[in-house]
Specification:
nucleotide-binding; Aspartyl/glutamyl-tRNA(Asn/Gln) amidotransferase subunit C; about 100 residues; single chain; mainly alpha; glutaminyl-tRNA synthase (glutamine-hydrolyzing) activity; two-stranded antiparallel ribbon
């Protein structure tokens, strides 16, 4: 069983806000997820080739061709603020 303290720790790491009712629901939901993984662990996969997808899809990539571009001024005209030829954005990291 996953304790409320473990759920609180996970919530802090995931930066989730919750109330007491949600805390109880999280605990039950996490327990259901762990039970599901226990069920998956019991599945016999001997002789089954590993796969990452079930369809016959494959990635199709275009050639990566670098091209010169001198559109800096046009780009900076669309930016709300710029400084020294760069787009200026608000700080998001707390010090």
């Amino acid at each position: 069983m996953i304790s409320k303290e473990e759920v609180k720790k996970i919530a802090v790491l995931a930066k989730l806000k919750y109330n007491d009712e949600e805390l109880n629901n999280f605990s039950d939901q996490f327990q259901d997820i762990i039970k599901f993984f226990d069920t998956l662990d019991k599945v016999d996969t001997n002789g089954v080739d590993p796969t990452y997808q079930s369809g016959d899809l494959e990635n199709v990539f275009r050639s990566d061709i670098a091209k010169k571009s001198n559109e800096r001024e046009a780009l900076l005209k669309n930016a709300p603020t710029s400084k020294d030829g760069l787009i200026e954005v608000p700080s998001i990291i707390e010090e």
